[in-house]
């Protein structure tokens, strides 16, 4: 670890996906603070927990980014928590019709803000 991203705040959309989790862990190893969001609260939380277990700093919030309100809430969450946004990894993807892997809804999702 070089610490070249020390205290940089990196947003990751679709943070519950495997690629997103690997990205979060890699960036956190370099010192970045990870702020994730996913429509699936449990997946978002799993990535946050993985980063924390590896000694990094992360927070997440479950949101649907398919409308502007979700995106605005995501940036608001990051700014309230860390006061800055340095980069965003736009990883979220919605499954195409007929692909066999529809987006997973998250009823009653709540933010995870513990450090
Ligand atoms: N897997 C591949 O081989 C591959 C190849 C090329 C590009 N990519 C791109 O890499 C990215 C990640 O791919 P992956 O295979 O890890 O995907 P994935 O499906 O595992 O992860 C995507 C995440 O986005 C979340 N998501 C879906 N709709 C959302 C919404 N409306 N709001 C918030 N979150 C939402 C899903 O819950 C999921 O956790 C995608 O953008 C994909 O297009 C993937």
TrEMBL record:
Protein name stated in the entry? SDR family NAD(P)-dependent oxidoreductase
CDD domains from the entry?
SDR_c (cd05233)
**Keywords on this record?**
Oxidoreductase
- Quick check: keyword Oxidoreductase in the entry? yes
Domain of life the protein comes from: Bacteria
Family classification:
Belongs to the short-chain dehydrogenases/reductases (SDR) family.
The ranges of region (Disordered) come to 93-115
Organism per entry? Pseudolysinimonas kribbensis
Q: Which InterPro entries match?
A: NAD(P)-bd_dom_sf, SDR_fam
């Amino acid at each position: 670890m070089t610490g070249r991203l020390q205290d940089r705040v990196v947003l990751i959309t679709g943070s519950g996906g495997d690629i997103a989790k690997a990205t979060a862990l890699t960036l956190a190893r370099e010192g970045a603070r990870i702020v994730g969001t996913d429509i699936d609260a449990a997946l978002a939380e799993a990535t946050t927990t993985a980063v924390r277990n590896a000694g990094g700093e992360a927070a997440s919030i479950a949101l649907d980014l398919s409308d502007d309100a979700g995106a605005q809430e995501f940036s608001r969450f990051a700014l309230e928590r860390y006061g800055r946004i340095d980069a965003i990894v736009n990883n979220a993807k919605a499954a195409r019709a007929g692909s066999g892997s529809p987006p997973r809804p998250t009823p009653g999702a709540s933010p995870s803000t513990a450090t």
